Amino acid sequence: MRVMVWMVHGGWMDGFLRGQHEYIVPFAGDEPPQLPAGVRAVPERALREEDVDVVVLQSMAELEAAERLLGRVPGRDIAAVFVEHNTPKQHPTEQRHPLADQDRIPVVHVTHFNRLVWDNGDAPTRVIEHGVPDPGPLYSGEVPALGVVINEPVRRWRVTGTDLLPRFAQVAPLHAFGIDSDLLPAALGLPEQRLRIVGDLPTGRMHAELATRRAYLHPFRWTSLGLALLEAMTMGMPVLALATTEASRAVPPEAGAISADPGELATMAAALLADPDEARIRGAHAREFALEHYGLQRFLSDWDTVLDEQHTMHLRRSRTGARAEHPDAPQPFPGGPSSQLEGVRG
Predict the structure, then answer these.
(1) Hey, what CATH class is 143-293 in?
(2) pTM for the structure as a whole
(3) Do domains 2-131+298-341 and 143-293 have the same CATH topology?
(4) SS3 annotation, 260-286
(5) Taking the domain 2-131+298-341, which CATH number applies?
(6) Which of 22, 228, 270, 316 is buried most, with the most CB atoms less than 10 Å from its CB?
(7) Where do the DSSP E strands lie in the chain?
């Protein structure tokens, strides 16, 4: 199947683009993005020449862009799905999704929690949980420190639990990774021996560096489930996670600690720093759980199902519309629609 998708949310795309389809990634300007082998970058000006089967949207701006660049309306003239990566930003229970007033484009949430808290209205919804490529059991834990990965930690502050970091720095040195992590020392007032900035590294280097830290800290209050958390678990790191949003589903207690009380997480952090063997045992549990629940093949299989459903449904609608305009034309499906489409809203 020919799938068009914009290059955003790099970690998620790293998994999504490993599927079996032909992927078309639009780009503006003269320089195409760096893409995996087998993925085609197509200039936006040339998209009307592409025979796209389904569009995967990740923002409302892309909805408008797809119509303008393809000359077809997503959900009407071409099959489309919308991936909602985020928790609602304006209100935790009352925020209506931008696609809530239509039923042609399904909203695919990346966590069950996100689907629960968004007001999805009339939009069909699905959940396809994250899947991460297995980096292997990289964990050594030789560095007695907590690794934490937060992009833009100062700007996002309470959302990412940045304000909680000094509490953990009291019991363990913090080593911070991520975009703009260099702004943390001035914002938190922590000395270098309590907070070391590693910075924004390429994925492979980040995994190798992170895996040497004793445990992974996930202090996020109100975000979707971070891929860095799942990657840390897959590497075999024990994790200390604030019990918010989807984390309670993703982190079993034996994988480290999960609690809405930062004090309990800090207590476990101190225990893991004092006991490397216990840290390895909990990290092994984390890896086993992550591989079982957040493996790449399950993720890709789930996406195959949704893309096939939407493409098939679009073809059915197109044929139904053609029969309505030409009622004397032969009926292509005398036996009725395929059973796999039952229950999917039209």
Answers:
(1) alpha beta
(2) 0.89
(3) yes
(4) CCHHHHHHHHHHHHHCHHHHHHHHHHH
(5) 3.40.50
(6) 228
(7) 2-5, 22-27, 39-43, 54-57, 79-84, 107-109, 125-127, 143-149, 174-177, 195-199, 213-218, 239-242, 256-259
